[in-house]
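Predict the 3D structure for this chain.
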Amino acid sequence: MKLITRFEAAKRSTSELHSLLREAFNALAAAPRGSHEREIALASQRNIEAELASRPAPGF
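Done. Predicted structure below.
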């Protein structure tokens, strides 16, 4: 998985972010401990979650 930066996450729709979050979670689970792939997946997951948290809740 390639790194999803906060800037890139900001350009995506909420549904796209949820899909990317699932991909990052799966990549994190599949990567060996201490690997570069795991670090990238974890950083992507954090960036995506931060972007989702900064958006208003649906229905408001």
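DSSP finds three helices and no strands in the chain.
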